[in-house]
Amino acid sequence: MEKKTPYCFGKTLEIPYAEAVEKVRAALAEQGFGILTEIDVRAKLKEKLDIDFHPYIILGACNPRMAHKALSVEINLGTLLPCNVVVYTDAEGRTTVMAMDPAGVLDVVANPAMSTIAQEVRGQLVAALESL
Questions:
Q1: Do 63 and 33 contact (CB within 8 A), yes or no?
Q2: Long-range CB contacts (< 8 A, 24+ apart) of 83-86?
Q3: In this predicted model, what pLDDT tens digit does every residue of 29-79 receive, in sequence order?
Q4: 3-class state of residue 98 by DSSP
Q5: pTM over 0.90, yes/no
Q6: How far apart are CA 108 and CA 1, in angstroms?
Q7: 48 Cβ neighbours under 8 A, 6+ residues apart
Q8: Which residues pair with 52 in a beta bridge?
Q9: How many domains is the chain built from?
Q10: Domain span at 35
């Protein structure tokens, strides 16, 4: 991935925002993720604060099989679910896709069994973004 922080990873795409959102949905679906939540940040900021913001969407992605596995190991993990994936237009007008890094985020869970699950989910998210 070309972009990385301690809590997320992603890439810049050379396609328009709306097309990127659809491609991200499809790529996540191919890896077994469904979209549980969707927040149009631009629309919400306009509605609530009358602020014009660049296109920005938060997709709450969940792989049910992996969520069940993780919740069976760590019942309170639901406080960290789903895995958020964002698509936005940056200051230069480029489209960026970033995904929460479950391996980085789940380090806060003091349960060694979660590490393997987090790495597996991370691999699925990386595969989805790499396919874009």
A1: yes
A2: 83/33, 83/121, 83/125, 84/58, 84/59, 84/60, 85/24, 85/28, 85/58, 85/59, 85/61, 85/125, 86/56, 86/57, 86/58, 86/59
A3: 999 999 999 999 999 999 999 999 999 999 999 999 999 999 999 999 999
A4: strand
A5: yes
A6: 23
A7: none
A8: none
A9: 1
A10: 3-130
Name the band, by pLDDT with cuts 50, 70 and 90, for residue 111.
confident
Q: Supply 20's token pair.
A: 């990127």
Placement of tokens 């391996």 in the chain: 103
Structure tokens given for 66: 């992996």
- The enclosing domain of 110 has a CATH number of 3.30.310.70
Q: Are 122 and 1 in contact (CB under 8 A)?
A: no
CA count, 13 A, side-chain hemisphere, 89: 12
Helix ranges (DSSP H) in 31-112? 41-49, 64-73, 102-105
